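Researcher: Last one for today. Full complex below.
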Amino acid sequence: MSTSPVVEEPETPPPTPGGARADLRPEHIREAVIRLAGNSQDGIQSAGAFLARLAGRSSQDVMTYMTIPSTISGGASIFQVRIGSGEVLSAGDEADFLVAFYQHSYDEHIHHLREGGVLLYDSDQVEPDPEEKRFVHVGVPITGLTIEALGGTAKDKGKNIFTLGLLSKIFNFDVEKLKKLITERFGGKSEDVLNTALMAFQSGFAYPVGNVLSRLYHFEPADASAQAQITMDGNQALAYGLIAAGVRYGAGYPITPWTSIMEILRSEFPKYGGLFVQAEDELGAVSLALGMSYAGNLSVTGSAGPGISLKTEAIGWASMAEIPLLVVNVQRGGPSTGLPTNVEQSDLYQAIFGGHGDSPRVVLAPRTVEDCFYVALEAARIARKYSTPVFILSDTSLATRIEAFDEPDLSGLMMNPAPDISPRDQEYKPYALDHLTHHAPPGSRMLGDKYPVVTGLEHDEMGHPTGSPKLHAAMTAKRRRKLQELAKEIAIPEIHGDPEGEMLLVGWGSTYGPISEAVNVARERGESLSSIHLRHIHPLPEGLAQIFSRFKRVLVIEMNDEGPYGYGQLASILRARFCDPKIHSLTKTDGLTFRVREILEGALK
Amino acid sequence: MTTAIAVPEEREKLTKKALTADHPTWCPGCGDFAVLAAYYKMLERRQLPQENIVTLAGIGCSSRFPYFVNTHGAHFIHGRAVPLASGVSLSRPDLHVFLFGGDGDGFSIGGNHLEHGARKNINLTYVIMDNFVYGLTKKQTSPTSPIGFKSKTDPTGAIDHPVNPMKKLISAGATFVARSHATQVNHMIQMMERAMDHQGFSVVEILSECVEFFPGAFDSSIPRKGGTYSLIDEKKWDDTPEDEARHDVTDEIAAYRLANLPFPGLFGVFYNIDRPTKNAMEKKWISDTRAKTGNRSDLEILQKTFDRMK
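Model: Here's the assembly. Have a good evening.
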């Protein structure tokens, strides 16, 4: 509600028995940040997901943020939803509403509530500080009322849906749409489950919250002409992007936070006649995927950092043998097992340089959930055209957050998955030096009667092993030239903000939202601040030097360590590339996404 | 790009000449030459469409195989050839997948993949040329080196208990397990052919001498050097009293018993059962799933999924 602040109401009107007051008038707001804090087994993620999907269906912009404990079951967990009638770029630094299910939720998260914000708490579980006057306190016996509404056996399961009903009243949500969502979600299960959910929702909605809160809220309607919205998380967007990209085969091994992509692909690929295999380990997974790619089916493998380390040797083979392959890395905190459920962007060096020898590969990074979908298409296009491995660097925050985005025009996007096993003529050479390699997969008849062997040994144009110094130099250059050719066709990044000025922020990956929002906030204050966001990180697009030349300072923002010389991973690469001392670095390694405030402080100090 | 190419209607017979590619780089006298010759012979006999034969390998002396065979092929990295071959097999049912490698590649660095390829019963044929030594790196102890074998990494003699390939393969779940000898070309052809015809993970271990770094390793199994070469007598199921004593290839315990015989042991098929392949089960899952979607087009299926996410 930052654009239209709620008037502080330190005094709560006395409760009146007998339902909501008739004189409650909704206050119109443009956006709100709602943080649900509880334990992971309470289903707060699914309550949050309902809110996100509802916003998507109402053509509102939405972004979520969640933390999941890395414990097996249970543990403190939050889900934050930011819903807006305009563009929403980040999940919000501070919450306007905090829903606290437990005392620990209150203790941990009350300082994330902005002054004047509303604390909605389960009065059966939470005792707020009575001296605290900065917030509007709204206590509702959520546990007791849920048990009362649902009867004994469910215990307090259903608190999440009860709370959803409560929030629907407070925010004037479209109840019919929400009930429809609940029906879609639970309709496939037994009728009991659905009825219980609807009952919980109804009793939350019927609670006379007006007695303890003097104001209800109403979102300003979003642009009515807006396109249909799709609501999903980043891992879903990436998985469905791969399907649109004509990827039908792949293999993986479970690891947080990549796992949900392989789960989706395992179930989805067969619908399209394809197959995703759960391998015995990461080395097996990448090797299976390479077998599928070698057989003519562009394939995907993926993991998080530890698994990518294991796959590295085989990815080097893909560079050398020139086999197209998509490698998804959903980054988490490292090194080693690190922070399995937190976010970091510390695998950039690994993606670009991981592996022995000069083994060129392409590295792309999606900036939003929507972009996860489109990056998959771009990665597949590049892998096919250049017959080379392509990395997609996502991260925990993109993987787990839900956003609503314009429905893609699938009919214009779907790529053809069929392998090309047409006969090859006498002239065919698997590794011709004068043009890009396009392999003849097994099943292709070789009319010159010479069948090709693809290999990880250095080879001549026909694929014969060679130790020739000349050929090694020529083939190394051939593989490197793919990146140089690709760099020429990448669009120059758009500048957000003024095309020239005091400072340019440079970001990559999931920091797009907070960086863009920081630029907006600074410009509203009259400061000179602009930003660009890199989607193609290796190779870099051309034209960056010209952009940098128009700014006095360039500040690279990323979630990794500054290293021994004071520069983060992308900052180091840009400094090495442009030898420009005005390139500086803002990094952080707390395992959390950037807040807008942190970027502003770092940029304008 | 290839639509204009004229494809000859008539196919020439697949001969040894057509199947021969680069001249092998193996040392003179290496057992692998005979394995290669047996592979040519078997392919000649079977006359498969040349473009549908795939010859794959990992790393090692014997893993140079693909360069010497004029079929589609891939020379992969050390120890990972089983999953590579599995990827080819699972995504392309129209191909005949042959995999060649050595004892280090298969039983040491690739041991885990061997276990799981066997367990999943992936449809492919794997020929392991076992020479009891690392030859490409010039004489280090291998996982099958006998105790006491002096190598550069065990100068006073190997001390680690060697892998028993037959037992390892049977316990892992391979559904066709055979053993042959590089000095016995006809037997190798027979074993390879039966392995190829078997639906599932079929493995033939072939004792193939490294004349450079472990000469004489297999003398006790070569009759002209005073050894004994004995074949497994398989059951004929002919209701004769002699058949009682013969080996039932579907009997796992009996197979272990044969595998436990002291070196040189017996040659032939130790174990051969029918179990559904992963290929067949995945194929069924795919066709059932496709049927559930009403065999809709890719675009329609994805659009429907997106409609649910609105």
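DSSP finds 18 helices and 22 strands in chain A. The longest helix of chain A spans residues 469-489.
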